[in-house]
Amino acid sequence: MKFGYFDDVNKEYVITTPTTPYPWINYLGSQEFFSLISNTAGGYSFYKDAKLRRITRFRYNNVPLDLGGGRYYYLYDEGDFWSPGWAPAKKELQSYECRHGMGYTTIKGKRNDVSTEVTFFVPLNFNGEVHKVVVKNESDKAKTLKLFSFLEWCLWNADDDDRNFQRNFSTGEVEIKGSVIYHKTEYKERRNHYAFFSVNAPIAGFDSDRESFIGTYGGFDAPKAVVAGQSNNSVADGWSPCASHCLEMELQPGETKEYVFILGYVENPVEDKWESKGVINKTKAEAMIAQFATTADADKALAELKADWDRLLSKYILESGEEKLNRQVNIWNQYQCMVTFNLSRSASYFESGVGRGMGFRDSNQDILGFVHQIPDRARERIIDIASTQLQDGGAYHQYQPLTKRGNDAIGGNFNDDPLWLILAVVAYVKETGDYSILDVMTPFDNDMSVATPLKDHLKRSFDHVINNLGPHGLPLIGRADWNDCLNLNCFSTEPGESFQTTTSKDGRVAESVMIAGMFTYIGGLYARLMEKVGDMDEAKRADSEVDKMREVIMKDGWDGKWFIRAYDDFGKKVGSEECEEGKIFIESQGFCVMGGCGIEDGKAIEALDSVEERLGTKYGLVLNNPAFTRYVVEYGEISTYPAGYKENAGIFCHNNAWIMCAEACVGRGDKAYDYYTRIAPAFLEDISEIHRLEPYVYPQMAAGKDARRFGEAKNSWLTGTASWNFVAISQFILGIQPDFDGLKIDPAIPKAWDGYKVTREFRGDIFEVEVKNPNHVSKGVSSLVVDGKEVAGNVIPMFNDGKRHTVVATMG
To answer: Where is the Glycosyl hydrolase 94 catalytic domain positioned along the sequence (predicted)?
Structure first.
């Protein structure tokens, strides 16, 4: 069942009913100001940091669903009232439509022959949202209408706002000037910032006190002021400040009124933060408001935003003849990669933005999916991430985007983290050819007194693995590897006490075959990077360590038909035929094969065959099998989930991509593409009633075959699935691979394909690549012709002339 449709021409998903199976959201903003908005205008906004600079309030896991807050509009028509997005008023509409586009959302609803269209977006280089509201009288008689706006201020720190009522109910402050409502809570204290909500028209009234607007026991569905058709002109004094305008309008049949509302954020210099009588410095806000004095200003800014997204998405364009594949690759996957770059895993409808900042491993992996679009910002992000690394090569697992400081509460000891930094840097260098990043003086734990070149950070990342090996010579898992719920270093000091996790510093010896597989893959890339910068001794040393690890994996990490997952703290195998449950895990199969383990003796193929046999479902590959049906203290959190959910045999879409890459490595393009289509959102649109989440972006996971709700997705938008699936399809399956010396063409496609075309910007040049498959093979390039001249091998040489170049690669 569908709840809308793709409009590929406009790069939009069009939702045709407000009652989607779950709120389907979009993200606004791509620089410093961000917003989440659902198809009924729910959501919230923040500046840089969803925890420390929350602008509007939102209540998670709310009942009714998606009525925890938003930016709402109400139309009042002679006693009747409604909302253009259906919610929160929930009055029946004559028509409804929501268009989620690239950085903007338009919601349109009609009732009583009055149509209202609201377009929400964050303009480029602007710290705020612009709402263009269009009200049209489509009836045959004159209408006297009132338009109410509403949003609720968060008291800046979302965590404190949610809990510290005894203080916060006494701190709310606002200031009203004309048609602008300023939120200045705590401005005079220390923060030198404020927010505002404005409209470019005279207002008939306003409210800035939530209780006055809604009523003591009222709700968003029927606010007291809207029901009465009259604002209260309330000025918040403590309690819960909000912002609501009331505009009156007379509309003749066919007449339209247009307005521009702005939700903005301002930071002033410290010396300006507090003036006489508590009046804030409004200069910056007034300048922001002046930018959008008319709807023509808003239209121009929206056109500029769309053009910028067209530019970003033009970096990689596929022509495959398959509509669903084209839209997934050309539009929605790349768009999602940019959103995850901005937010990591911090703020969604499944992450509150309070408990998590930017993830070390998360943000490094996200770079793989967007580096081709904004390499300069990728470079900045790499330095930010590396600056949180610790001197021993370990890393803070998370850091706050506003302060860029490591999160002490979570700490480090996730022993996979260091390797992801190497992978991100390699991806950046391959994309740009910019080796100078390796010379950037980069601090440890943000302490410049102990800064070293980034190249040294990579060496310490590499050495962190070989300096932390267990009894079998495999890497110690630490607190966890990529699978945070596989907690193998578990112990209890007294009967009945809760179990906790420790690291090797406490004598724990659980080992990870996944990290070992990562090491063979990423360590090999590190060795090639060292070769390119002329450090041959380091390259030789790295190759030697990778070879040793590969031998250890084949000796103690092979279980007969697949790679085991780990050894627990007691030296017992995890992910083995010997295990009662959890006999096979997906992660080590992907990375060990990508790292070249078992390629020559056929064991890689055997492992991948076991993946399909044991883990395969019609909705994707489950993480492990059989699912755990009881709590296993030696394994920790993974066994606490019901069978089929999350890490306990759920379809964790992130690691499905590693199997696609592995299948491509062994030349099985049919299988790689088959796995791709099982989880790509555009291919699942027809089962939206089962999948439930947005059919235009990847979720983190879907319920596995052991679950009662098999196929139901959770945790959409912010997931490493986005970057890894873009890597899988663009580099491993379609085979257009950035490499140190140029653009490499190495497809692994279904045999039935005749070919395809990819236009790819690379290091300032544009390559129009046509791949032909006359012999219907999956792997192998028999000839490469560039600008009419045959080139030996399968790497396009670099021109660096800023021109377009034609490439024909023939498979065979």
So the answer is: 309-735
Q: Which residues pair with 781 in a beta bridge?
A: 811
798 DSSP assignment = P
Sole residue written with tokens 């895990």: 585
| 398 strand-pairing partners | 359
- As a 3-state breakdown, the chain gives helix, strand, coil percent values, each rounded to 5, of 30, 30, 40
Is there a catalytic annotation at residue 484?
yes
- On whether both 293 and 403 belong to a single domain, the answer is no
Domain extent for 454: 357-462
Per residue in 752-800, pLDDT (tens digit) is 999 999 999 999 999 999 999 999 999 999 999 999 999 999 999 999 9
Residues 6+ apart with CB under 8 A from 117: 84, 106, 107, 108, 133, 134, 136
Q: Are 225 and 209 in contact (CB under 8 A)?
A: no
Q: Report angle CA 626, 629, 635 to the nearest 5 degrees.
A: 85
Question: What is the number of domains present in the chain?
Answer: 4
Residue 42 token pair: 């729910």
Last residue within a domain, chosen from 645, 679, 710:
645
Spot the catalytic one: 160, 463, 484, 535: 484
557: in domain = yes
Preceding peptide of 241 cis, ω within 30°? no
Residue type, 767: F
- 657 in a structural domain: no
Q: Is-cis flag, bond preceding 64, omega within 30? A: yes
pTM over 0.85: yes
3-state secondary structure of 651: strand
Q: What are 546-570's pLDDT values in tens digits?
A: 999 999 999 999 999 999 999 999 9
Same domain, yes or no: 512 and 535:
yes
